[in-house]
Structure formats: C-alpha cells, structure tokens
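Worked example 3 (structure in, sequence out).
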C-alpha cells in the first residue's frame, strides 16, 4: 500500500499514525505527562471507502484517546499505546484537523 503498512481500513474507519514528537513549542512532554491528556495528535495515512470526503490523507488531526484501537504494523491490537504507533477509529471520532500539522 501507499502508506507503507499493509492495513486497509474498512467502511468509515481511518488509519492514523501517531506523532512521534511529544513537545509543545520547545518544551518536551515526558511520557507521564502525555497520559494526562485525553487526545492524540496523529496523521491520517489511510481511510475506508465510506469515510467522510473532508478527511484528507496526510492531514494532521486530533483524536480522542479512547475513541479507537491501537494496533501494530501487522494490524494486531495492542493494549498499551506505548507499544503501537497506529490507531484505527471511526471517521466521526476525529475531533479537529490541524491547519499547520
């Protein structure tokens, strides 16, 4: 696939890749601080055929922490977000699209 991962979302689901950099401005956020926030910054890397047309592949979005499922590159669910970099959720679970990523 184009996204480099062999995962194809179905229906109105989107596949997101987590932002690796955890910082606000020039301040890095430690992992313990990340867990206090209820949202994740991710990039849309694939979407299902029924996903909203306004969602653009490559755009940066904020999604609720408990809206979907963390998965690994093989598509297997993982229990802890620290063990995964991909997130799959419904298109309606995307909270906002970021203008500048």
């Amino acid at each position: 696939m184009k996204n480099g991962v062999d995962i194809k979302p179905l229906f109105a689901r989107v596949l997101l890749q987590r932002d690796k950099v955890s910082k606000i401005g020039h301040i890095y956020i430690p992992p313990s601080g990340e867990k206090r926030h209820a949202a994740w910054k991710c990039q849309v890397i694939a979407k299902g055929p029924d996903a909203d047309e306004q969602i653009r592949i490559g755009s940066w979005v904020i999604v609720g922490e408990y809206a979907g499922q963390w998965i690994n590159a093989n598509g297997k669910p993982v229990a802890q977000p620290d063990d995964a970099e991909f997130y799959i959720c419904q298109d309606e679970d995307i909270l906002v699209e970021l203008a500048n990523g």
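Notes: The radius of gyration is 13 Å. The chain is about 5% helix and 35% strand.
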